[in-house]
Amino acid sequence: MCEEPTCFCSSGTRGRRRFLKAGFVAVAAGIAGSSLLARTARADALTQVQRDSMTPEQVIEMMKSGNERFRKGERKNRNYLREQKASANGQYPAAVLLSCIDSRAPAEVIMDLGIGDIFNCRVAGNIENEDILGSMEFACKLAGAKLILVMGHTACGAVKGAIANAQLGNLTGLLAKIQPAVQATAYGGERSANNYSFVDAVARKNVELTARNIRKDSPVLAKLETDGAIKIAGAMYNLETGAVEFFV
Ligand SMILES: [Zn+2]
After folding, report:
1. If pLDDT is split at 50, 70 and 90, which confidence band does 26 have?
2. Separation of 34 CA from ligand 1 center, angstroms?
């Protein structure tokens, strides 16, 4: 049982002590710098010391270098089983990602991240709502994540559906949340779902508006950002090139 009243995880102080005693943590606190983390292979999951020593900008750098490895066909020499065991009694993710459900945009794969590195919110069109905001507030305020990254992607089916005014059951209401981005996108050419240039422009605007809405609709997260504890940033993943473009 967790002993911390605000903690929703299955771990606790006692569990972590046992976990530390067991010697699963390979990187000692004294050498747990984020630059070291970014450069070297990590055998186990992020520790609290490692995560807490990182700035939001360093978390972004970790993601950027991971995406560079992915694009080169490289990856860290990670051991998922050791990451699973190291994180079983506690998690210290560095970021919370809001991304689309698209099967071709799995965050951990395209940014070479491991078990315990990030929280994931996935919903078609990467829109925010109360439940997503609640998840993010837990991730940042209670669990200590340093970065909220809203990641859209090219050729997004949800964005195409919003542009085409698609109607289907509960999907209709979800797509309505993307409509403001369709309206707000300044575009000189053909504004249709068949024009991928327009679709991608709307997806980019949708990321911007979602990041803005997160600040507007969550005073908790807005204050964390104002205080410098977290950063709220946007990104676009290009399905064709494999590149994640960060808007910072
Ligand atoms: Zn999508």
Report:
1. very low
2. 31
Distance 106 CA to ligand 1 centre (A): 11
Q: How would you label 128-156 residue by residue, b for 16+ Cβ within 10 Å and e otherwise?
A: beeebbebbbbbbbebbbbbbbbbbbbeb
Rounded distance from Cα 212 to ligand 1 centre (Å):
19
**Dist. CA 15–CA 1, nearest whole Å:** 9
pLDDT in tens, 125-175: 999 999 999 999 999 999 999 999 999 999 999 999 999 999 999 999 999
How many angstroms does the Cα of residue 154 sit away from the middle of ligand 1?
A: 8
pTM: 0.84
Distance 237 CA to ligand 1 centre (A): 10
Nearest partner of 150 among 228, 213, 61, judged by Cα: 213
